[in-house]
């Protein structure tokens, strides 16, 4: 809704903070591509997804239920439960409650520990919303959300470096001890909408809190390093090593927008934004006994301390933004927007013990930046539009963890990045709306690019020079006959460095950016027809494809290249007026699809690599009903 659920900086934990959202009881999901910052207060470098939940409805009682059973081929069984209640309180107010419990089955085994389905996970939580709307001019909405995620292991398997084939030929992952994790997300928001006549005022006040606990077995990297090079100096036998991480973030956010009303040729909006974010990450390492596979939370070799890091970060941002649009004629309009923001950061690292090495690092920073956007739309006919947009984007810098084992070339911090995004495209409808299409060409110039890189097994962020991404995206939806719907979307992207990275990392002008496939796309087909009375039957097929992608830039050795993959999903079912029964098969071909690869070694010579994979072939049955 109106809460920017994101974070800034290395200790902001952006990879974990976003909750696991699904489409249950959502009114719509908005997709805004390219740099953003003039329509909403928060800045977005590449685009944003806005999940718009259904508001409480004072006019009637409503309820909904969705239940799904799943079974992974060669893995476990799971379920997904969702429920919704809409409870009117008066003619002007109502509650809306949503609860869910998702149990995701595991499909990875660990023969070394005699365990199966080690990557099972669970996500459960709920949302509560209260709406008070005394008249058509004023509404006050209170939202609260809570979610708990937990897992035993990630969706990771051991693969051979280079070929990325499974080490054992099966979906297995070997670990000396477990790598469990849990994440808690909380959100409270109050949104006030007030129609003042000449304009509408929106005030959004949010408070976000995040907590996590993560375990990581690093015995094949840092454990090997300590056991082979450090422990012998003290006469200590070999041990494994685990990192136990506790982290948290809290943020208070205030946004105000004043938008013009009416159908005048000139439309405008002005706004202000403030964010106050504090985060911490505490990483402590402990020895692991190789025989019993137990974590030694108290070292038997006191005062020897393997060490760790305790990091804190503060982030404050103030911003003002405005945009204006002018309808030149019934067929042509233009708009222009701008945003000025000022951010202040603090980053403090305290490294201790053998791995932290007494590192004390403070990295305060302050920066002001202006971003802008301009676009034009021409509609020569009611079913056709040409448009163009130019926009600039910004993402702040931050500090890096600096282990004592890290080479001197590892950067202690990284600076902000900026982009200039140029796009042009067409949208239209043909054959009375039975065919809709959209085609966009784009070019993105990226300066001081922030790159994920590996320095001898230490993952970090550094600044490169410049990069460029050019390509095209398309989306076509056709309904050639009654009941048949066809959709085809895809992208062609060339994303490369246009300058060499620092000499400490093997990145050269022309190299492909990490994780960016040249080709990607999806095709979907659905056919629905009446069976009898109010009963309809339907079948559907979805196919998606992603081309080969390059992994992180590395200081030592070649980059890992992830192969292309394609997956096929099938579904069929029946639907009545208020219920729907669906049987489905996801990843019907049981494709081993790798999303990313991370080395579990210090320098690449001690063991396998860990590949994150998508869920294998999964069978399921789902039923949903509205009341």
Written account of the structure:
By secondary structure, the chain is mainly beta. It has three helices and 36 strands. It has helices at 14-17, 219-230, 353-356; strands at residues 26-33, 47-53, 62-72, 77-90, 93-104, 121-135, 138-151, 156-159, 181-195, 199-217, 240-260, 266-289, 294-296, 308-327, 332-352, 360-362, 365-381, 384-395, 398-399, 413-414, 417-430, 435-447, 450-455, 458-463, 466-478, 484-497, 519-532, 535-546, 549-550, 553-554, 561-562, 565-575, 579-586, 594-599, 609-613, 618-626. It has a 22-stranded antiparallel barrel. The longest helix is centred in the middle third of the chain and has 12 residues, at 219-230. The protein is globular. The two termini are 25 Å apart. Residues 600-606 have low confidence and may be disordered.
Overview features:
61% strand; 3 helices; 627 residues; 22-stranded antiparallel β-barrel; 3-stranded antiparallel beta sheet; mainly beta; globular; single chain
Provide the fold topology.
Blueprint: H1 14-17, E1 26-33, E2 47-53, E3 62-72, E4 77-90, E5 93-104, E6 121-135, E7 138-151, E8 156-159, E9 181-195, E10 199-217, H2 219-230, E11 240-260, E12 266-289, E13 294-296, E14 308-327, E15 332-352, H3 353-356, E16 360-362, E17 365-381, E18 384-395, E19 398-399, E20 413-414, E21 417-430, E22 435-447, E23 450-455, E24 458-463, E25 466-478, E26 484-497, E27 519-532, E28 535-546, E29 549-550, E30 553-554, E31 561-562, E32 565-575, E33 579-586, E34 594-599, E35 609-613, E36 618-626
Parallel strand pairs: 23-30
Antiparallel strand pairs: 1-2, 3-4, 3-36, 4-5, 5-6, 6-7, 7-9, 8-35, 9-10, 10-11, 11-12, 12-13, 12-14, 14-15, 15-16, 15-17, 17-18, 18-21, 19-20, 21-22, 22-25, 23-24, 25-26, 26-27, 27-28, 28-32, 29-31, 32-33, 33-36, 34-35
């Amino acid at each position: 809704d109106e809460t920017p659920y994101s974070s800034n900086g290395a200790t902001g934990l952006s990879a974990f903070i976003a909750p696991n959202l699904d489409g249950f009881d959502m009114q719509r999901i908005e997709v805004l591509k390219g740099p953003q910052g003039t329509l909403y207060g928060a800045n977005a470098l590449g685009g944003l997804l806005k999940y718009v939940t259904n508001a409480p409805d004072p006019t009637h009682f409503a309820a909904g239920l969705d239940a799904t059973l799943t079974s992974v081929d060669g893995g476990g069984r799971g379920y997904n439960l969702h429920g919704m209640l809409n409870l009117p309180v008066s003619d002007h107010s109502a509650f809306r409650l949503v609860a869910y419990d998702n149990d995701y089955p595991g499909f990875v085994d660990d023969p070394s520990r005699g365990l199966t389905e080690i990557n099972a996970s669970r996500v459960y939580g709920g949302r509560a919303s209260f709406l008070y709307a005394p008249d058509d001019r004023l509404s006050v909405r209170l939202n609260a959300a809570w979610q708990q995620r937990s897992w035993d292991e990630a969706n990771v398997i051991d693969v051979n470096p280079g070929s990325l084939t499974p080490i054992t030929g099966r979906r297995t992952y070997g670990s000396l001890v477990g790598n469990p994790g849990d994440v808690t997300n909380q959100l409270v928001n109050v949104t006030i909408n007030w129609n003042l006549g000449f304009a509408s005022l929106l005030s959004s006040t949010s408070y976000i809190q995040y907590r996590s606990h993560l375990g990581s077995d690093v015995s094949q990297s840092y454990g090997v390093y300590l056991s082979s090079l450090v422990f012998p100096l003290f006469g200590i036998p070999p041990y494994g090593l685990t990192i136990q991480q506790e982290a948290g973030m809290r943020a208070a956010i205030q946004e105000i927008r004043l938008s013009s009303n009416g159908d005048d040729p000139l439309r405008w909006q002005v706004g202000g934004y403030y964010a106050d974010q504090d985060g911490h990450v505490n990483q402590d390492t402990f020895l692991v006994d190789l025989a019993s596979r137990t974590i030694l939370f108290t070292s038997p070799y006191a005062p020897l301390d393997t060490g760790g890091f305790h990091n804190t970060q503060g982030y404050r941002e103030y911003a003002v933004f405005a945009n204006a649009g002018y309808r030149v004629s019934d067929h042509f309009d233009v708009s222009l927007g701008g945003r000025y923001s000022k951010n202040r950061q603090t980053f403090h690292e305290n490294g201790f013990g053998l791995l932290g090495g007494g590192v004390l690092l403070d990295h305060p920073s302050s920066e002001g930046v202006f971003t802008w956007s301009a676009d034009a739309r021409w509609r020569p006919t009611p079913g056709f539009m040409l448009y163009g947009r130019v926009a600039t984007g910004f993402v702040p810098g931050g500090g890096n963890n600096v282990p004592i084992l890290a080479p001197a070339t590892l950067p202690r911090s990284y600076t902000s990045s900026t982009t200039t995004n140029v796009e042009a495209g067409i949208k239209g409808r043909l054959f009375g709306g039975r065919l809709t299409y959209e085609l966009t060409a784009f070019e993105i110039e990226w300066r001081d690019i922030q790159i994920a890189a590996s320095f001898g097994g230490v993952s970090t962020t550094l600044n490169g020079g410049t990069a460029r991404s050019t390509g095209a995206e398309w989306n076509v939806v056709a309904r050639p006959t009654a009941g048949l719907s066809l959709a085809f979307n895809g992208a062609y992207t060339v994303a490369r460095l246009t300058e060499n990275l620092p000499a400490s990392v093997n990145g050269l002008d022309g190299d492909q950016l990490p994780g960016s496939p040249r080709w990607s796309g999806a095709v979907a087909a659905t056919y629905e027809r009446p069976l009898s009375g109010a009963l309809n039957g339907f079948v559907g097929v979805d196919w998606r494809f992603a081309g080969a992608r390059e992994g992180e830039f590395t200081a030592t050795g070649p980059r890992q290249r992830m192969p292309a993959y394609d997956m096929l999903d099938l579904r069929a079912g029946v639907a009545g007026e208020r219920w729907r029964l669906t049987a489905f098969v996801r990843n019907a071909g049981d494709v081993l699809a790798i999303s990313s690869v991370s080395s579990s070694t210090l320098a690449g010579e001690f063991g396998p690599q860990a590949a994150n994979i998508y869920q294998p072939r999964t069978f399921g049955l789902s039923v949903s009903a509205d009341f």
